[in-house]
Amino acid sequence: MPTERPTPPSPAPSPSLRERRRAAAAREILDAAEEHIGLHGPAALSLRAVARSLGMTVQALYHYFPNRDALVTALVAKAYDDLADALQAAADGESDEPSTPRLLLVTRTYRDWGVAHPERFQLLYGTPLRYYAAPAEGPTTQAVRRMGAIFQRELFEGFTTAQLAAAEVPPLSSPFQERLALLPANAQGSLPPAATSLFLSAWGHLHGLVVLEVFGHTGFLGEHQAEVFESSVRMMIEDIHRRIPAA
Asked: Could you tell me the CA-to-CA distances from 89 to 84, 165, 172, 207, 221 in Å, in that order?
């Protein structure tokens, strides 16, 4: 009896005209909200002001974003995705410096994005907006995990799981290791505990440097802020890789 060939899946239906118009209007609202944040800062986000800038009423805006939290969630997820896109492009692109580690190129891009978009960076990492809580396992969580996965891949590229498990780190308590075991696989849960400890240390080091600069705490260094950042990140990478035993 001849084997029946599986029926290929039907292509997804194209969005209707109404759906395309709704998506375009939502993008226009997001763009206007980003512009408002750029001018006035995240804490001053006002749905009324965003609606007024587009010549629409707040009630009309609610058709696309039912409340302020929905708009903030979309803004945060978009900012994380835009940042992750920039990091991915840095990791995948051709470099003018072939000998420079890809991880260093990615960290440079992270800094450059924060310096170029200080208000959006503050939306992600600054003082939390009053009364706002991101939805659990929602789009903001997925977006930040995507960004973290890029750093994780570049930091530990070329090392085996056994090497990462044997990394030299201070002793980790049993409760901490139990906590790490609960992390999902796409949020460092696939790493051995020692590697997770190294990753969190690297993230705190890198992110802390960018926060200090974006929030104006290293302005006394003037044009040398980039040089200090690069030197510090190079030392960090060397230290972390030195703690991972050879294969």
From this structure: 8, 30, 35, 19, 29
Contact 144, 175 (CB under 8 A): no
Which pLDDT tens digit goes with each residue over 39-87? 999 988 889 999 999 999 999 999 999 999 999 999 999 999 999 999 9
CA separation for the pair 10, 234 (Å, rounded): 50
Q: Is position 81 within any domain?
A: no
- What's the N-to-C CA distance of the chain in angstroms? 52
For residue 125, is it within any domain? yes
CB 214, CB 121: distance < 8 Å: yes
Total domain count, the chain = 1
Residues spanned by the domain of 120: 94-242
pTM of structure: 0.86
CATH number for the domain that contains residue 210: 1.10.357.10
| Spatial CA neighbour of 230 closest among 216, 244, 210 | 210
Structure tokens at 245: 């035993």
**Segment 114-132 mean pLDDT:** 91
Residue holding tokens 């974006």? Answer: 214
CB atoms within 10 A of CB 77: 19
Measure the CA–CA gap between 154 and 169, rounded to whole angstroms: 20
Of residues 185 and 135, the one with the higher pLDDT is: 135
Q: Are 58 and 48 in contact (CB under 8 A)?
A: yes
